[in-house]
Here is the input.
Amino acid sequence: MLTLNETEEEQRFRAQMRAWAEEHIPEHLRWREDFDSLQEIDRILAAHGLLAVSWPAEYGGRALSPTLELILTEELGRVGVQKAKSPSHSGINNLGPALIAHASPEQLAFFLPKILAMEIKWCQGFSEPEAGSDLASLRTTARLDGDHWVVNGSKIWTSGAQHANWIYALVRTGTPEQRHRGITFLVFEMGSEGITFRPIEQITGGSDFCEVFFDDVLVPKANVIGEVGGGWPVAMTLLASERLSGRHRYNSFRRQYEALAASLAGESDAHDLHRELGRAIAEVEGMAALGRRVESLREAGGDLGALPQVNKLWWPVAHQRLTELGWKVSTARRTDPSDWYFDWLAARPESIYGGSAQIQRNIISERFLGLPRAPRPST
Amino acid sequence: MNLEYDADEQSLLSQAADVFRGIAPLDAAGQKPSVWRSLVDAGWHDLGADVERGTLAAGLAAGVFRAAGHQLLVDQFTSGAYLLSALATHVQDEPDRAHVAAALEQRPGVLLGDGRGAAVPVVDAGAREGYCFGAQGEIDVYRVVDDGGLVLARWLGAPPRVQARPALSPSVATVTVDGDEWRPMRLDLTAGDLPGIETTALLLHSAALIGCAEELLTTTRDYALNRHQFGAPIGSYQAVKHALADVYAANTVAWNAILSAVAEGADTVTAPLVARYLAVEAALGSARAGAQFHGGMGFTAELTVHRFLKTVLDGGQRFGSHDEFAAALGKEMVSRAC
Here is the structure.
């Protein structure tokens, strides 16, 4: 029987989490997106063991089912906690599952407790100035010299580099011709000698990400996750988690469309606007339906197939259309469009980070529709 | 929460897909003659309601209709058939199940009333004429009367007049009856049950439409693999493959929206509106891509792709324009926000 109804255990958990969130998330931290507020919320969650709820118990998690994890996310979302934007998200939701899948027992024992205690805040060193969507062409090198890797090169679009004390990075340990088979997944401290970074000013006025430079940075030989030259599968595990992150954002998008709907109150004959609003809502709710299916499949241990790629392709476009509609309605109503203007700008990178929309289309068309790779220009 | 079919349900869906796949292929005119008889013979004419297998839950019925859509059977069922199948998912006990089964047993039924409205007016005691999709050959005519409780009435008079609409699709027709020769079958339902029945019909049809859209995507993918230009399959060019990936994504999202809408505990007002809008939008997207990427061949009647296109165009407007469903969703959310 297909059902959205929750089991008694799930209902109890939701009631507990709702009460907990109301009691422990202070009003002044709700719906805030600045780093200090988000970090403060992370600390509250960590103190109550609610940061890495899906991790296995042996690693300090609570081994919650995907559904219970989603319930927690939804209840936190109700009080304005956007977990996808929290400083802990990269370590808990993205790197954590990749470490658990690929790291050595010693590495797990070292890193996971520190991530849980928020002693380590991570940033991600994947993209480079000449390696964006074509990630496998990255040029940052790591050369083994005695007990250390010597890292040289640069990374870009590194979110939160100015706040992070560790970085996980893809580096080339093989030849460029080896493409993804010559890439290694390294972790090292941002305070290492030879690392500098430059915040990049965004179109929204903020500087959420940086360019990071490595100049003969020494990294202990043991800081490889997985095999030397085997960093690509680790990165793919990590990106698979990242591509499911839309489910963390639904509450915030729903709040936006409800605000837009409220702004149309009293306009019962605004048929065209109702239609446009309905389209935008349907697309956001389509994202929610995908999220429910992902949770259902994870709960049943089923194969997610193309759902991560479809999700990453769908939700940014749905959000971008919603923010554009909000901006249009706001300007047409001659009300202050500032918030929607900002949201429109802020939604632009959503279809780029975590694997651009074009990359998702490549994966869907080649892996799931069986279409051939694009002809490559002869060199 | 569970949105997965269990092993028994998957087995039944697989059985349905096998039966539908074996139904007579398209003839030269792009029709599937005698499909209804074939379905009756195979025991699958009732789709959502089968006496031996037991009445299917709406969620499972949606899977059956999706499988029917894959085999281009969407418009072989009239709007009335969808409504009757939906009715069947709502009745639990005898004699209602027998009544509905009897209504479905012979030929596709036309339920009188204007099937174009966003809310299908199945209660229309005075109706003599119905605008319907899927009326081909001999048909049965039904209407639902609210007589303090719902009465399903079957037309027993002279054969109805079926006049094809001057549309490109052969499946659109006006059906007219004269006289007052109805055989009533009283159901243990009231007019208050109708919105739920109509919603189920809407979702079953949406499931069939998505099945059709998925098959159309497969057909287009196959063409893009086999058609070579500039020395390579056209499906290797990003202009083509990315557009098909978008169609795949839209179909996937729409199917999952349908699953969410037919599941127990769904919001019975907004979830069907979301699912219907997304399903029609996805199906139209499949049609546009199918027509474009078949090149000139997509504009001919020589490939079956034109049947998919017409099925989607007809089907997308059955039960009302999807834009109207979007407007209804927007209006509902505005009223909830107040």
Q: What stands out?
A: Residues 48-54, 105-109, 112-127, 166-170 of chain B have pLDDT under 50 and may be disordered. Chain B touches chain A through 60 residues (CB under 8 Å). DSSP finds ten helices and twelve strands in chain B.
